[in-house]
Write a structure and sequence with these properties.
By secondary structure, the chain is α+β, with helices and mostly antiparallel strands. It contains eight helices and four strands. The chain has two domains: 2-75, Glutaredoxin; 86-185, Up-down Bundle (Glutathione S-transferase Yfyf (Class Pi), Chain A, domain 2). A hairpin with a 2-residue loop joins β3 (53-56) and β4 (59-61).
């Protein structure tokens, strides 16, 4: 099996953490690729040239959730997607949307001066603060380490690293403390994003 990734993709990082936590790392070759490059050979693997992608035999699995679910299948357990009730499904939906908003902010922030959209960045900052206010009384992350938790931890970690998380500790101190603790765990540290 081969897992294609970029070091700064939080979506790929989720799969890389899950790969290690699942004990499947010895069976999977991780290959760092170039994206956002029309000349990249990665287009031979997937016409979208997005990460992550898992190649397992002839199968191409090209979605973060599907890759983690595949790891569950390979392990024969439901580590990443345990049975969910309505509240757990909503929590997964919110944390995944939170990561999507962080990713939009990160892409805007990487644009050269004069090309950034301040309204887009302000909106994503506002939306992130709303999510954190919603999460603050609901998040019971201690001891939990499933797809939802890894998604939230990866989103917060890269947002902190890139300067988006200002004031978040005032909004959701328990969530931010939990994410800070998780960021120091071996597999999170091993897959931490590179320089911006």
């Amino acid at each position: 099996m081969r897992l294609y990734y970029t070091a700064n993709s939080p979506y790929a990082r989720i799969t890389r953490v899950a790969l290690r936590e699942s004990g499947l790392r010895p069976r999977v070759e991780e290959i760092e690729v170039r994206t956002r490059d029309a000349e990249s050979d990665y287009f031979r693997i997937t016409p979208l040239a997005r990460v992550p992608v898992l190649e397992d035999g002839g199968a191409i699995i090209a979605d973060t959730r599907d890759i983690c679910a595949h790891f569950d299948t390979l392990e024969g357990r439901t580590r990443w997607f345990p049975p969910e009730d309505d509240d757990a499904r909503l929590m997964r939906h919110v944390t995944t949307g939170f990561l999507d908003g962080v990713a939009v902010w990160l892409r805007e922030n990487m644009r050269p001066d004069g090309q950034r959209s301040d309204p887009v960045m302000r909106y994503e900052e506002h939306r992130a603060s709303q999510v954190l206010r919603w999460l603050a009384p609901r998040w019971q992350g201690v001891g939990r380490w499933d797809f939802t938790a890894v998604t939230l931890a990866c989103a917060i970690d890269i947002a902190r690293d890139r300067g988006m998380a200002q004031g978040w500790a005032d909004i959701a101190p328990d969530v931010m403390d939990w994410a800070g603790t998780r960021a120091g765990c071996p597999f999170m540290a091993e897959t931490a994003p590179g320089p911006a």
